[in-house]
Amino acid sequence: MSKLAEYLNRHILGNVFDRPSIREAYSTDRSILKVTPRLVAVPESANDIRKLLRFTSQLASREFELPVTVRGTGLDKTGASIGSGLIISTEKLNQIEEIDLRGRLVRVQPGITLGSLNTALQLQGLWLPIDYDPEATIGGLIANCPVDGLASRYGGIYHFVERAEIILSSGDLVQLAPMSLRAVEAKIAEDTAEGRLYREIERILDEYADTILDRTMRPFDAIGYANITHVRTSRSLNLLPLIFASQGTLGIVSDVILHVEPLPSALRRLLISFHDLKAAQRFLNYARDLDPSTLKVYDLRILEKASEHGKKPDLFIRKLGKGLAVTITFNYGRLKSNKKIRQCLEALPTGTFYVEETPDNAESFQSLNNSLLSFLNDDNRGERTPILDDVFIPSMHFGDFLDGLKNLEKTLGADLPVYGSFATSSYTVRPDFDCTTIDGRKKIVDFLKLYSELVDNCQGSITANGPEGRVKALMMSKTLGVGERQLYNSIKEAFDPLGVLNPRVKLGADVRDTIRHLRTSEKRGIVTP
Q1: Cα separation, 352 vs 284, whole angstroms
Q2: Residue 8: its pLDDT value, please?
Q3: First and final CA of the chain: distance in angstroms?
């Protein structure tokens, strides 16, 4: 490996490292896994990435395995941003390259974070309406395509990417955007890597037409490459949808053009505390029909736990107790937002505790997010590790889900407070299990199995709000039919014929390999929701 690092360092502007301390730093992400890479590359440009991929493809053609994993800030919670071969970090590809104010378009590199981008855009009266970890990179958002808290109103990252530049495993660069059928015919005739890719995808679309139609008729799920259903229309063909939720298994994003929105003119928030869960569910169903920008729920035990560290929200004037805290945000104009707040208040049962946002208490509303931050980091060993975050639970089964969690708490002997978004039906439970002990790791495996069963019993899905990676694939490996698996394998082979890009992720996930890489040490440092 030291000879490979030395060779690569002579050919790229960035750096390639084989030092144990650096490899160790890139051996974990937000997941329960740890995989130490052989090499870590920090490229300075897209051209560096192209050179690295050409080299690894040449090795693969000679049957020397050096799998490539692309990584942003390492926030993936399914083990998709770690790997045993070469890690390519996009941390230096973090620039805003161009802003078109009139067209409300922005061109960025993949390593720029959501927080940095929005800080810059807000100076121009614009923003990218994604309610997610501000440390997440744009490339990471595309790779994982999470359902964020604003997705019910704005549609998520999928709806804001106009076009993207992708580097294939061969090192070839392709531009992905809607293309007319006439332009596709011309592209197919080209004797290039891009031409070969389009020929293969056209063949796949025809050969698996029935399987794709069947996939279209079912609820969307991010497992595999389900966005194949959005690739071809009657007038155009667009390969870009396949990159969303692909977790770096099809190509590496090197440049992105995003559509952005004007900053909302007014923001109104409302906090409500429910101790009657049935009353809470009735209200949540009503409030969701008012089309809020966010509609979030927090188990009051999360706030209670945070209060032990002095982070009890100032908005609460009474004892928290058991139940749910609900926050609603409207970002319409002032009059319309005020009207919707009044509608919410009129629907509340008599005696329900609530707080409206005012100029005097606006800062206190931020304390709710800080309470969640405190809860996620209250363990002396480190963070509460994500195991199966962001599961999908249909609103009609939310009550069944809460009841099931109570039973699961008794079975596992652990508290399982939930938080998430009722508007997007996305929920997270963070048990406090010690991965440094054999008993703790056994509980993690038990939780994977039992929690997945609960989600399934509630007609939900652990992958509807985000892709499977290595971790969720443990529970999803048998859910794909033969035809659908063959379809996805064909797509993978069309983009990455030598299997260089993240071969142990998504379809290539191996149960024994994943279990073998369960972390035995806690991940230190502050994590965000």
Answers
A1: 14
A2: 95
A3: 37
| Long-range CB contacts for residues 346-352, cutoff 8 Å, separation at least 24 | 347/283, 347/286, 347/287, 348/272, 348/283, 349/276, 349/279, 349/283, 352/272, 352/273, 352/274, 352/279
- From 82, 90, 11, select the one nearest 44 (Cα to Cα): 90
What is the rounded CA–CA span in Å between residue 115 and residue 98? 17
Q: What is the DSSP string of 417-431?
A: -EEEETTTTEEEE--
pLDDT of the residue at 34: 95
pLDDT (mean) for 445-460:
94
Q: CA of 209: how far to CAs of 136, 248, 491, in Å? A: 35, 25, 13
State the pTM of this model. 0.94
Locus of tokens 């405190």: 374
The string of DSSP letters for 254-287 reads: EEEEEE-EEPPS--EEEEEEES-HHHHHHHHHHH
Candidate from 74-78, 305-309, 370-374 with smallest mean pLDDT: 305-309
Give whole-number Cα distances, 400 to 214, 256, 288, 440, in Å. Answer: 29, 41, 19, 27
Smallest Cα–Cα separation from 104: which of 83, 87, 128?
128
Residues facing residue 96 across a β-bridge: 108
Amino acid identity of 219? P
Non-local (6+) Cβ contacts of 529 within 8 A are 133, 369, 372, 373, 376, 419
Q: Report, in this order, helix, strand and coil percent for the chain, each rounded to 5.
A: 40, 20, 45
SS3 16: strand
| Cα 355 to Cα 230: distance, rounded to the nearest angstrom | 43
Q: What is d(CA 456, CA 400) in angstroms, rounded to the nearest whole number?
A: 11
CB 127 within 8 A of CB 260: yes
User: Across the chain, which distance is largest between two alpha carbons, in Å?
Assistant: 73
Residue reference for tokens 């079975």? 411
For 393, the token pair is 């639970």
Per-residue model confidence (pLDDT) at position 523: 67
* Chain-centroid distance, C-alpha 153: 17
Partners of 328 in the beta sheet?
270, 295
φ, ψ of residue 238 to 5 degrees: the values are: -140, 115
CA-wise closest residue to 428 among 411, 441, 447: 447
Residue 326, SS3 per DSSP: strand
Alpha carbon separation from 438 to 43, 145, 513, 520, 528 (Å, rounded):
39, 33, 17, 9, 27
